[in-house]
Amino acid sequence: MEEFPVKQVNENLDDPPNSRLFAVTSRSLTEEQLRESFSVFGDVQGVWVVKDKQTKESKGISYVKFAKSSQACLAMEEMHGKVLVDGTKPIKVFIAQSRSSTRHRDVEDEELTRIFVMIPKTFSEEDLKDTFKEYGDIEYCVIIKNKFTGESKGLGYVRYYKPSQAAVAIENCDKTYRAILAEPRSKATATEDYSGQAPRGDYSSGGGDSTNQYASFPMASDPGNYPPIDYRSSDVTRCLMMSTRAALTQEQIFALFDIIPGMEYCELQRDSYGMSKGHALIRYGNLGSAVYAKEKLNGFEYPPGNRLGVNFVDDGEDRSSPVGRMAMQFVATQMMSAAWNGPSGSQGMKPPPNFPPVSNMSRIQTDVNLPSLKKLAPPDSKAKERLFVVFSPSPLPPDVLEDVFCRYGSLIEVHLVPGRKVGYMKYAEKQCADEALDALHGRVINGVKMKVMLADPPREESHKRPRTY
């Protein structure tokens, strides 16, 4: 294994952040082969193959350190799933966690594709896009505005389609923009939004450490993570945004919201590849219908176990005048008190006769061509292979996982780690585990993306969780 002085290792491995790759490879691959394969993407500063302390044999896990984050991200995008040597399995490549991180999961693309920038207050979203489009394809741009005046705060987000594009933008854009990676949306509080308070660190006054360009910046939520809005406030609108973890279809969402009379528009939001983003935009012809739909469907479980989130979004109408506020509050009060003489709980909602019942829906919604169900192996079977699975945004129910992973044969049991977004699948036959890994890695099941990897064998007489890296 390539050795570096301890001081140099500690100082340079995470400089710059996200410049080190974690790779799951064939145990036969050498450091020289890895260096040769990855060096085409940039300056490789080090390659480490993790070896067993007793046998000195490779564990099939390696690290590759680049000089730049953009080089590491590009290598990850291009090398993931590639076969380096004939007869070996495709390698899996991820951005490695920083050595100081306390998290036990891979760095998600969500954490690598959004950047946060300081911009002139005169910038429009089109100006922001024109400025940063030279570094890659942009999914969206957002300017943070004052919720009361509507004026720009001189802060914005740019979301790219690829991590390498965001990294190139950070490295090459004008330093006055002070571009950094934005913090993941999951860390935003429910009460914050783009028009909320200025971010911690007071970038608007020129504070902060400008040398650490890749430091995560604690910010508010962004499109797709809408905060709850008080129906008594002036934020009640005719437009709603629905979020869902399950992979609902356009037709199912339409049928659900069409229960409330007055729906004018319903569209499931999709990415550039046609995949559902997990949220839909719905607009009603009047405030009353929108208020009622929000009250009845926010928290409604469809299918059972999948709790829908429904919140108001800006419909562009001006309700700042006293008359507008009074009219809106009157409608909201009437709808909330009367509720069309129906039960007040959201689960009191009864779908119409033509709404697709849960029992008729496919229990597993995915684009994977799953084999037929197979019987579980006897519970006392010896586990010959274990799969380690990382879930995003949250774990699937054990019965759903059992339904999916048993289809490749010899599944013994499913085990989810409490309080974590990971789990283990035990197989009695190695070939069955390999087939499940190849078929399910990177796939989305019921709206949940899975990363499937081989788990290290458990240590004898140890109660500690087996390491997977």
Automatic annotation (TrEMBL):
Top-level taxonomic group: Eukaryota
* Chain residue ranges for the region called Disordered: 188-208
Annotated coiled-coil positions are none
**Keywords for the protein's UniProt record, in alphabetical order:** RNA-binding
Q: Which InterPro entries match?
A: Nucleotide-bd_a/b_plait_sf, RBD_domain_sf, RBM45_RRM1, RBM45_RRM2, RBM45_RRM3, RBM45_RRM4, RRM_dom, SLIRP/GR-RBP-like
Q: Which SMART domains match?
A: RRM
The RRM domain sits at 19-98, 113-187, 237-315, 385-457
Q: Annotated Gene Ontology MF terms?
A: RNA binding
The record ties this protein, via PANTHER family, to: HETEROGENEOUS NUCLEAR RIBONUCLEOPROTEIN 87F-RELATED (PTHR48027)
What's the protein name? RNA-binding protein 45
